[in-house]
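@channel anyone free to eyeball this complex?
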Amino acid sequence: MKLTGSEILLRSLVEEGVDTIFGHPGGVILHTYDVLTDPAVASKIRHILCRHEQGATHAAEGYYKASGKVGTVMVTSGPGACNTVTGLTDALLDSMAIVVFTGQVPTTAMGCDAFQEADVVGTTRTCTKHNFLILKTEDIPRIVKEAYHIARSGRPGPVLVDLPKNVVMGRAEYHGHPQELHIRGYKPTLQGHAGQIKRAVELMKTARRPLIYGGGGIIHSEAYEELRELVAVTRIPVALTLMGLGAFDTSDPLWLGMVGMHGPYWSNMAMIHCDLMIAIGSRFDDRVTGKLSEFGKQCKIIHIDIDPTSIRKTVHVDVPIVGDVKQVLGELNKEVRQVERHWASDFGEWYAQIAEWKAKHPLRYGPMLDVIKPQYAIDMIFEVSERMNPIVATGVGQHQMWAAQRYRGRRPRRWLTSGGLGTMGYGFPAAMGAQAAFPGDLVICIDGDGSFQMTNQDLITCVENNLPVKVVIINNGYLGMVRQWQELFYNRRYSQVDLTIQPDFVKLAEAYGVIGLRARRPDEVKPVLEQAFTTPGPVIVDIVTEREENCFPMIPPGGAIKEILDYGDPIPEKLFQGLR
Amino acid sequence: MRERTKAIPKEAKARHIITLLVENHAGVLARVAALIAAKGYNIDSLTVGETVDPSISRMTLVVRGDDSVVEQAVKQLNRLIDVIRVTDLTGEEFVERELVLVKVKAKPEAKAEILRIADIFRAKVVDVAPFSYMLELTGAEDKLNAFVELLRPYGIQEFARTGMTVMTRGNKTPGKQTEEMWKEPDTKKVVGLVEKG
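replying in thread with the prediction:
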């Protein structure tokens, strides 16, 4: 039986297990949207109409991160497709598996500056893991299969499929979803090299101050149990990157905290004093390493990563192990269990040193009188919500870093944040996507006033689709992190960061038909949050905080980790010349 | 195809010859070139042509860079889905060939000299006009460079080089590229890779 390309596409998506599409229709994708109304498709696939394509892509990222299922986006050509570029880039840097379907003008009009034409495959070449332009209707099932396979396997990432109008309107025989696929140029290495794993264990045997530096790869590969086991046997302390948060039990005494520019003092000190760094699914981002020339000089480095390009990209590695983190750790654990060593007793001095750093430089903030300290607000969000096992998303900025530092008790796939690209406006749509995956769970978006204003139009999407996201705005009336940099490194010349003139977020909420709450004084924070988290439907909480609070500790941009500034430290003038 | 970079002194960075087997369809060349360009590497030359299997093309890429930079480039190229195999031939024994076409001014008094140069280099005269010769020469890069330098004083009117194409010597094939490459794919091996979705 011959079907149209659009029918084949949606049948393929159903076969692929897609149950949710985030998208926005438009001219040339109309034919495919028409098929969405087909009862056989509509009963299997829920389409969530986002109010901007950027939001749709972040929602798909949130859906993927929370559920582990590939997020799907469908948009039209030209402007619709171009609006996905931010989300695609974000997904590429944070290894989020999403597939974006874009409409395209007919192949006969391509390259002719047709209405709403953009060279989307060309535009997104560098911000996708792979992209396809489908030229023949009969190729649709194969390419859908390949797109989802590429997105979710290996190092996950975004894949774009461009659908010319004549291809989706054309007819072809549909023989069902292909059972097998073969992509000659794509065979991710999953199993680690046995010899390298042995070499890693040799290094571990003699280490006195080892440290596990884990990243988002642990979550993508769902290697939590293997990591827990490795730590249970070896008693090596664990620090995680921003993207890795949630991969390790925060109540474990060997859990240190986040590393990097705003990680706690002690975990950063552990990074520069360890004698063996076991990097697992983390990629030595410059926000973690600080000044490269001073990073990792004191230690041997073992690096486990599925993406060979991440290894030795910036840092010299002594034992590289390319493979899937879950498989490699499984093999590593087998070897480690053979080692006769009483690990913990050898690490006594190391533990003591870390404890000393912790005691001397705890996470702290100044006294709070009448005005709410943002750190306190985060602590309260944690206190009120923790027993409800929420999914927490953040925007980008100071609030994000405070949340990363202070929101404890995270679980795998329950922490959504934009790390690699640092996309303001990520949090709210990502929370919406996670909520679509888990309709019954509490989903909180800790946002900034600046960040929220970038994508807040999807409030109505939440209302329309019964997605009860709770947005807590840490509102300091500034682009807070930019202001902090201007204060510290630009001699307090505040250029274009003042957001004093802003919408009344409570009224904004009401305009969208959702509940808006506000806290202005410290004693109001907890009751307002309790009310917000127990009220059905979407809620906006506007927490008006101290305006010029800074986020510490902080490794100055371009500085070495040892130059970390703690709360109250004087700001040395000379540090900031290598600013980046 | 050819982006000859003048800015980088050749002795500053080692020359690397990288061969790629890629899917033969639209956009692949753009992907490879864009990747190299995005990383800021200098491409000396890039040639591409179909292999015995029409679904596969072979590219030869000449770049100059530090070993670590090129190692990174090779890894990044390998990450491209359309790239089937990447091999850095540095340290390997190989035959390199490039073709150049030169249209050189040929005043009556210079004609004999030009032909003598062509003869010494075993270049072919492929077109003759009253005041010009078109010469064709195949060889390694250095030979071609020397040839061009000798012709330059006579006045080069038009000039085209194809860029390098290479092949390893002897029975060895780069990166275990054996006849298996051209056989029917073994789909069973691929199905069942991590299916996490």
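from a first look: The radius of gyration of chain B is 20 Å.
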